Amino acid sequence: EFRERVWRLTGLVRIGLRRDGERAATDPLALKPPVTVTDVARAIHNDLADSCKAALLWGPSAHFPGERVGPARVLEDGDDVEILT
């Protein structure tokens, strides 16, 4: 509980990464809000941000698991994304 409270104080948003629908074995990215799909792609690599067409989304802001969303979609803490090029 202490850890979660400290995390909330940072104001950062945690975004998990997926590949082929499966959660990647990496720690989530921590980004300053508001965070879009393009921001996540840019945090991985600038070239990925340039070629990002959409993403598959799981988590609190998804209407259903694996929802396809555009690059301008704003993400919430705890979302997982798979970047599509």
Describe the structure.
This protein is of the alpha+beta class and 85 residues long. It is 27% helix and 34% strand. It has helices spanning 2-10, 37-44, 46-51, and strands at residues 13-19, 22-23, 29-31, 35-36, 54-58, 67-69, 74-75, 80-84. The strands form two sheets. Strands 1, 2, 3, 5, 6 and 8 form a six-stranded mixed beta sheet that branches. A two-stranded antiparallel sheet has the order 4-7. A hairpin with an 8-residue loop joins β5 and β6. The radius of gyration is 12 Å and the shape is globular.
Strand content: 25-35%
* Unreliable sequence segments: none
Distance between the termini: 38 Å
Q: What number is the mean pLDDT?
A: 93
Main sheet attributes: strand count, strand direction, barrel closure: 6 strands, mixed
Q: What is the fold's blueprint, element by element?
A:
Elements: H1 2-10, E1 13-19, E2 22-23, E3 29-31, E4 35-36, H2 37-44, H3 46-51, E5 54-58, E6 67-69, E7 74-75, E8 80-84
Parallel strand pairs: 1-8
Antiparallel strand pairs: 1-2, 1-3, 4-7, 5-6, 5-8
Short description:
By secondary structure, this protein is of the alpha+beta class.
Features of the shown structure:
single chain; 85 residues; alpha+beta; six-stranded mixed β-sheet; two-stranded antiparallel ribbon; 3 helices; 8 strands
